[in-house]
Amino acid sequence: MHGSRPVAVSATLQYLLFAGMAAALQRLPLSLVRRLALIFADALFFAVPIRKKLTMDQLRAAFPSMDERTVRATTRASTRNLIITLFELMWTPRLNDEVIAREVRLQNKDVITGALRRGGGLIFMSGHFGNWEWLSICSARLLGMSPLAIVHPLHNPGVDRLVEGYRSRFGTRLVPMGLAIRDIIRTLRDRGIVAILGDQSGPSNAVFVPFFGRPAATYEGPAAFALRAGAPIVMTYMLRQPDGSYDILAEEIPSDDLEGATDANIRELTRRHVRALERMIALRPGDWLWQHKRWKHAPPDPSCVVRDP
Q1: Would you list the DSSP string of the chain?
Q2: Using one digit for the tens of pLDDT, what is the confidence trace for 243-297?
Q3: Which of 10, 54, 173, 284 could serve as a FRET partner for 75 with CA atoms 20 to 30 Å apart?
Q4: Are 204 and 217 in contact (CB under 8 A)?
């Protein structure tokens, strides 16, 4: 009993800190929230280097030709992107149609609507890139649909409840990853949208797909569901512009040549969506969450690794 008390106190303090900061940010205009995020991010970068070494090591491995000055600048940019995303998430209760119309542009909506018209539902994929939190929130409003979003619950239950309210603001339905199978099948059968972030490390027994030259454990679920339901995978990216606003870009992953949910086809479609995200990150490396341990596991056997053709 005594051993659990410090944990409980810590969780309460974490919740109060998060809720208090969110309440304070929601009283400010969005432009000021973004400026404060930059100040806070730079303070973290210089004074409290959270996962700074991990970020820089992963950048060096991903971009062997990148000089140290650029590695450091990209690490700082990634820290800024993370904090801006967090602060904007906290500000979400102020998000409305007027703000979305001013701040977010869905550039090629026809890619998404065209994929939906084919009738098998849609896998709406992205990674921890740009503002991934606002991606599904704003897309839901701009598309006039309520996607099913697969989420990892946060460790702090109080913070998780707050964030769940933010994420579901415009009708997005949330389901934890471990309990999602039935909901995904039902949503795709009803020609709906399933939103998934596909760049988190999979378990050690997952398929391994080369990601910036190193095998990375990768979930096969999105590709498996897509092939079984006949649902296209559309990669989406929320690109932050110099003025702080966003452009959402969509890219369908080719799959017409993959007939049936065979193991080989699932692995190949997984490789394709990983490669698409890799190309976008290579263009804007500071927009991705390099603080995540993407290469946490090593492949137990060479046969686990999906090779590029």
Answers
A1: -GGGHHHHHHHHHHHHHHHHHHHHHTTS-HHHHHHHHHHHHHHHHHHS-TTHHHHHHHHHHH-TT--HHHHHHHHHHHHHHHHHHHHHHHTGGG--HHHHHHHEEETTHHHHHHHHHTSS-EEEEE-SBSSHHHHHHHHHHHHT---EEEE---SSHHHHHHHHHHHTTTS-EEEEGGG-HHHHHHHHHTT-EEEEE--S---TTSEEEEETTEEEEE--HHHHHHHHHTPPEEEEEEEEPTTS-EEEEEEEPP-TT--S--HHHHHHHHHHHHHHHHHHHHH-GGGB-TTS-TT-S--SSGGGBPPP-
A2: 999 999 999 999 999 999 999 999 999 999 999 999 999 999 999 999 999 999 9
A3: 10
A4: yes
Rounded CA gap, 248 and 100, in Å? 12
Neighbour-count burial for 249-270, b at 16+ CB within 10 Å, e otherwise: bbbbbebeebeebeeebbbbbb
Say if residue 7's pLDDT is above 70: no
**Rounded Cα–Cα distance for residues 71 and 99 (Å):** 34
**Distances from the Cα of 36 to the Cαs of 40, 85, 121, in angstroms?**
6, 12, 40
Residue 302 CA, chain-centre distance (Å), reads 28
Among candidate residues 12, 10, 39, the one with its CA nearest the CA of residue 25 = 39
Burial 217-229 (b: 16+ CB within 10 A, else e): bbbbbbbbbbbeb
User: What is the per-residue pLDDT for 49?
Assistant: 74
How many angstroms separate the CA atoms of 135 and 269, rounded? 23
Side chain identity at residue 6, one-letter code:
P
